Amino acid sequence: MPEPTFEMTDELQQAVRSFFQRIPFNNVIGIEVDQLAPEQVLMSFAMKDELIGNFIHGILHGGVISSVLDVAGGAMALIGAFERHQHLSSSERMNRLSKLGTIDLRVDYLRPGRGQRFVASAVLLRSGNKVAVVRSELHSDDGTLIAVGTGTYLCG
C-alpha cells in the first residue's frame, strides 16, 4: 500500500515555525522563516553589529554563518522526518522528533559575508529512518554565494 502524499499543512508549518522561533539563539541572530516546503526551506536574517566577525570590514562572523546553515538544515531534516514518520501516531511522532539533533556539519566558506540581508536555503539529500542528510547554502542580498554546508541530523 503506498504511503499517503505528504502535505505541509498550515498547522504543520506553524508548528515548525513555532519550534524554531522558541529557540533563543535563533532570535539573537534574527532568523526569519520564509518558506517551509517538502522541497526546500528558506530562512533569512538582517546584518546587525552584533553579528560582525571582522569589525574592520564589517563582515559576518563565521560562527553565525555555520549556525544559520545548521538551523536551516535542521528545519529541512525536521520536515523530512515529519514526512517519513507520518504513519505514526502524533505522540509517537513527536517523541521521535524531539530527539532531532546535529550529528555532523561541514561548512565551506566561499566568500566574505558582506551585505545587509542574508538568505539560507536547505534541501533534503536523504531522509532515512534515523538520519537525514541536508545541503544548505547562504547567499547575500546581491545573490553572492557565501557558504555551503552539508549536515547530518539525527531525526528519529
From TrEMBL:
Residues 57-146 form the Thioesterase domain. It is an enzyme of class 3 (hydrolase). GO terms for molecular function: fatty acyl-CoA hydrolase activity. Its EC number is 3.1.2.20. The keyword Metal-binding does not apply. The keyword Oxidoreductase does not apply. It comes from the Bacteria. Keywords: Hydrolase. Pfam families: 4HBT. Belongs to the YigI thioesterase family. This is Medium/long-chain acyl-CoA thioesterase YigI. It comes from Pseudomonas segetis.
